[in-house]
Amino acid sequence: MGVPRKGQNELVLRSRIMQETKLEISKVKEEDAGLFSCRADGTNYEHTLLVVSVSASPSSELELHNKVQLHCEVKGFKQDPKVEWRSPDGSVKDPTFNIDSVTPAHSGNWVCDITYDGKHHKETLIIKVKEPAPATTTSSPTKNSKSPACPTCATPSKVSWWVWVAVGVGGFVMILLMVCVIVLCKRIKRRKKKMQRMKKGRLGSKQYCQCNRPVTKMKDLIEHVVIFISLLVSTRADEVVYAQVGERVTLKASLNTQNKYLYWKSGKQNKQLAWRNPLGGSGLGEHIPKGQYTLSGDTLIINNITEEDFGNYICEVKNEQTTTYQLLRHSVNRKPQSPLLPGDRLFLSCDADAPTGHKPPEIYWVNPQNEIITDNLKNVEATSEHHGQWTCVVKNINKEHNATVDVTVVGLSPAPSHPLYTSKSSPLTIPCTTSVSWEQFRAKGLLEVYWEFSHKESSGAISNSRQRLFNLSLEDRLSWKEDTPNGFKPVADLQKGKLSLTRKQGREYDRGDYNCTMKFKNGVELISTVQVEVLNIIASPGIVLNSGQELNLTCGHNLSSDLQLKWTAPKQSSYSESDPKGPHFTIPKVGTEDSGKWVCELWRNDTKLTSDVIKLKIEPRLSVWMLVTICSGAVIVILILIVVFILYRRRQVL
């Protein structure tokens, strides 16, 4: 392991090495986009960082008839990608789009769709359009008026109702205190005058006794005022807690309860639920069902909440403040409850009770793609993108409560976005899976399941004729039936939704499109198309050559720009250290050291997709001495034959 070294760039201050091989960049900026290279074990690995930014100028919260400019920018691509806005109504706009007059139709999710080399990336910008506050009418200026009109005066912002309630209650308390002080002062003055008269002997004992009555009434009034004020001061603001029916809720006391009496009460029935004393003793109130409430320390736990459990809960500490908790309902609803086919209508709704004395909560959905949806789904057409877990978020006073609901859209797993590559030296598996049970498929009227194949010609054209490879028997025991022998075998675990095909080694004829198809009684078809390409090494003029001949090796054709080819030569070859790359490789003069296995590997970034192997046989070249020796041997053999022939003829003559 080497010693990490840092440069002097400003980006270095925001970067750090994670787990020795990962680079983490914090607070990413636009200028950070570009190509990053990592060198490990003598090999360079390249990664491209793309920075996407979406914005609305001047703001994403607008009033009617305002002007706004939407921007979507991408930095880091070598070539400009396709960038476009998709408005809430589905129409396509330019990456920089001006709206001269905002209307309610512009409110919602604006999606910036970025397409590059067949890949898609989406960023969402939420535009909110609110109604303008009603303008205050002002009297028109008279001719003699010297003060000009105020065209730049801003309309005062709308104040929430609970703010007015708080101001009204505070004003009422202040007025009440002022009245009490005034009355008290007057009473004290009268009492002083009467005391002075009593000293002079002008009043009798009876009158002296009667003068205590106003003072007693005054004391009672002051006591009531003090009690009222102490109640206002000692009662803390409500805390809002959201929950679903059936959940378990924990209410934790926010007061200092150490060595003090603690009481939990129900605001609905004014009934004591649980208590705890300074000595550590604790218990539940009378007639409390066992298991419904639990007291753990100073925390009240409500188990398996029912509709009757929603309401106010009071945490009271003796001689201290009290806290009221509003336990409110959070519910989600999905229609229909059964699984859906693509094209069926889907309803999703999320509701939450509004708290008393607080702002209404913010409610929004998070879909399976982790995108924010501000509105409920009402009668929308179900697609594969709706399949998965939806989360309804209720946000109130910086607190969030999540409620989830699963949406099942019957279908096949998405096909790979890139073609699958194989070779004569590599295995091939064509994927097709589903996460839905066969009972749910049958309930939706599944008619048949089959595999089809369309061959891809060398010209790149797909054949119009389709071969049906396998057909699935939908009887009680599922089984595949082979229609056209092609060397493929279905994988096991049909009950687990695995419909894939596999073979040990690829063939050149395997190039083409494979369709995994499901048909239903209502005419709906679900098709997952997998493209297969075959990597093949072609040696020209052949794989058996004589030393000194020229050799051309070709591997792959019409490859996309994100793919790379790497050649591996035999260890004894002089090309083993040159690390040749590219689809074409030429050796001007082959030698016997070039004999052996040549490997062509196909890579996408840091992932090896497949490889093909070819074995070359190089015959040595004949030298001059070898030719002389061969020729000499041939001459000697011929002379011997001639001598033998002559001797044979002479014997016949004799």
From TrEMBL:
Membrane-crossing residues?
161-185, 624-648
Which keywords describe this protein according to UniProt?
Immunoglobulin domain, Membrane, Transmembrane, Transmembrane helix
Gene3D superfamilies hit by this protein: Immunoglobulins, transmembrane domain of human cd4
Please indicate if the UniProt record lists Transmembrane helix as a keyword. Answer: yes
Q: Which domain of life is it from?
A: Eukaryota
Query: Boundaries of each Ig-like domain copy?
Result: 47-126, 320-408, 533-610
Q: Which InterPro entries match?
A: Ig-like_dom, Ig-like_dom_sf, Ig-like_fold, Ig_sub, Ig_sub2, Immunoglobulin_dom
**Per its UniProt record, what PANTHER family does this chain match?**
T-CELL SURFACE GLYCOPROTEIN CD4
Protein name, as recorded: T-cell surface glycoprotein CD4 T-cell surface antigen T4/Leu-3
Species name = Channa argus (Northern snakehead)
